[in-house]
Amino acid sequence: MPFVFTEQGIAMLSAILKSDIAVQVSINIMKVFVEMRKIMANHSILFEQINRLELKQIEYKKEIDTKLDKVFDYISENTESSQKIFFDGQIFDAFSLLVKLINSANSSIILIDNYIDINTLNILAKKKKHVNICIYTLKKTKLTKTDVENFNKQYPELIVKYTDTFHDRFLIIDENTAYHIGASLKDAGKKCFAISLLEDFTIINSIREHLKIQSIEQTSA
């Protein structure tokens, strides 16, 4: 039965069916098969090109799918968490994250921390070149004018200003990204603390405006 619908099948069928109509239909069908064979022979290159195009489309789709998977994986791996907690003893992990945040700055860093020392500068030294730093701290800070001058010789530019109106620590990157830090940078990881991203830009502006009013610049050691 499957062979009925082939050219040979039609020829065999016409030998059985004797009516004029059946014979004529069989002849017409065979002519169609002949024409189809001619078309396929004359356009073999075109069909080959179509097959190649289909294969290329399949390969291109696979390539796009692979690239999209990589993009989604990268986004998943690099999406910054809004909060990170460190337990006591995770000194290196805390240091690594702080260095990453410092290094993410492209123009400016503002650090509000009442307890600053050389260890703080060691972290800030990981900044990119030409990124300016402004530290807001207490007047009784252990950081001296000489420390600042020595830092600026190698990693300019650092400015220290005094304020006593802040209890918590804040890190502001490029004036538009801010973090609330539960420990002084110099003590990060020694005890359990958290770093939280401040997502409300009005809070960041409020902090910056408050700093302009409630601070004075370091002038002596």
Describe the protein:
The protein folds into 2 domains: 1-79, no CATH class; 82-218, 2-Layer Sandwich (Endonuclease, Chain A). Helix content is 50%, strand content 17%. It has 7 helices and 8 strands; from the N terminus they run H-H-H-E-H-E-H-E-H-E-E-E-E-H-E. The protein has helices at residues 7-16, 20-42, 44-78, 91-103, 118-124, 145-154, 201-213; strands at residues 83-86, 108-112, 132-137, 158-162, 169-173, 177-181, 193-198, 216-217. The protein has an 8-stranded mixed β-sheet, with helices on both faces. Strand 2 (108-112), helix 5 and strand 3 (132-137) form a beta-alpha-beta unit. The chain is rod-shaped and about 115 Å long.
Topology:
Layout: H1 7-16, H2 20-42, H3 44-78, E1 83-86, H4 91-103, E2 108-112, H5 118-124, E3 132-137, H6 145-154, E4 158-162, E5 169-173, E6 177-181, E7 193-198, H7 201-213, E8 216-217
Parallel strand pairs: 2-3, 3-4
Antiparallel strand pairs: 1-7, 2-5, 4-8, 5-6, 6-7
Helix pairs in contact: 1-2
Key structural traits:
7 helices, rod-shaped, Endonuclease, Chain A, KilA-N DNA-binding domain-containing protein, 221 residues
Straight-line distance between termini: 105 Å
**Strand order across the largest sheet:** 1-7-6-5-2-3-4-8
Using the 3D structure, state the CATH architecture of the largest domain: 2-Layer Sandwich
Main beta sheet, described? 8 strands, mixed
Per CATH, the superfamily of the largest domain is: Endonuclease Chain A
Arithmetic mean pLDDT: 81
Q: Helix amount, in percent?
A: 40-55%
Give the DSSP E fraction (strand runs of 2 or more residues). 15-25%
CATH top level assignment of the largest domain: Alpha Beta
CATH topology of the largest domain: Endonuclease, Chain A
Give me the secondary-structure category: alpha+beta
Low-confidence stretches: none
* Strand runs, count: 8
- What Rg, in angstroms, do the CA atoms define? 38 Å
Number of individual domains: 2
Would you list the SSEs in sequence order as H and E?
HHHEHEHEHEEEEHE
